[in-house]
Amino acid sequence: MEVTARRVKRGWMNLKVVQIVEDTWDCKTFFMEDLEEGGRTWDYWAGQYLTIRYDDVAEKPLVRSYTMSSSPRQVANCAVTVKRVEGGLISNWMCDNIKVGTVLRARGPIGKFIYEQDKDKAHLVMVAAGSGVTPFISIMREYQDRLGQSGSPQKMTLVVSYRSRKDLILWRDIEEIARHPGCQVFVSLSRDNDAPSTFYQGRLSMDSLNGMLNSSVDFTNATFMSCGPQAIMDMAKSFAQMKGVPDSQIKTESFES
Q1: What pLDDT does residue 257 have?
Q2: What does the mean pLDDT of the chain come to?
Q3: How far apart are CA 183 and CA 177, in angstroms?
Q4: What pLDDT score was predicted for residue 246?
Q5: Do residues 178 and 238 both lie within one domain?
Q6: Which residues face 221 on adjacent strands?
Q7: Given this model, what pLDDT does residue 121 score?
Q8: What is the dihedral of CA 51, 53, 97, 48, to 10 degrees?
């Protein structure tokens, strides 16, 4: 990993929401900048998360962590993408109550679910479901136009599962990423039988992963990363192990509370 002077902001930051994008019917992306200084005043690695504190949602303060869906190369702001969850106190509160101008208390960045030049293989293979795609959008945005260069992977492949076309979280970003040479994207829909043939049909399985990846991945030169529900991560890990990928080249990050 390249060594550069890192900007670090200690303690709790005040982040002002400057833009809100409705990604899907149940998902929003919140763009934030430093309240006092403007812009993004700290550095982070693609795939890291912010911990946000909520003082007025419940009787006692609550904290939740959200991976940044923005890329570190976006210096004007950072962004988190939040999906409603049945019974989810904070995710639903954010989607219902956060407005442009809202100030959130956050600290970070935190996390090791990132591309590591000195440890990872040349081909990053990323498997996600639903909002688990957010760290991979950050990673792919960061490296999409400098694959093969120093400090970057040579190739990136994303496999992501959604329920239907109505649930395509960060779809505009995915479409843009897929246009870059060296970036490959496979999208599976579990409940949308009328979708065009550009989408895979059905739930992700060992067989469907094999159909997507077997001819395009050199498993001896691949690092697997998986994020989302435990079942997806377990399957991605089992698939990678079946293909001979060592555990040292398999990374997981759960989005389940």
Answers
A1: 40
A2: 94
A3: 7
A4: 97
A5: yes
A6: none
A7: 97
A8: -10
* Residue range(s) defining the domain that contains residue 238: 123-254
- Out of 63, 83, 110, pick the residue that ends a domain: 110
Do 231 and 206 meet the contact criterion of CB atoms below 8 Å apart? no
Query: What are the tens digits of pLDDT across the range 15-26?
Result: 999 999 999 999
Neighbours of 196 (CB within 10 A): 7
Indicate if 20 and 56 belong to the same structural domain: yes
Dihedral sign (CA 142, 231, 202, 243): positive
The residue among 54, 77, 110 that closes a domain is 110
Question: Is 18 strand, coil or helix?
Answer: strand
Residue 70 lies in a domain: yes
pLDDT in tens, 162-202: 999 999 999 999 999 999 999 999 999 999 989 999 999 99
Burial profile 3-23: b = 16 or more Cβ within 10 angstroms, e = fewer: eeeeeebeeebebbbbebeeb
Residue 4 lies in a domain: no
Q: What is the CATH number of the domain that holds 152?
A: 3.40.50.80
Q: Strand (E) positions, the chain?
A: 13-24, 27-34, 49-54, 62-67, 78-83, 103-110, 123-129, 155-162, 183-189, 200-201, 222-228, 250-254
- Residue 128's nearest CA partner among 83, 88, 98 is 83
Domain holding 50: CATH number?
2.40.30.10
Residues 158 and 91 in one domain: no
Summarize the confidence of residues 89-96 as an average pLDDT. Answer: 94
Over pLDDT 70: what percentage of the chain? Answer: 97
- The string of pLDDT tens digits covering residues 210-247 is 999 999 999 999 999 999 899 999 999 999 999 999 99
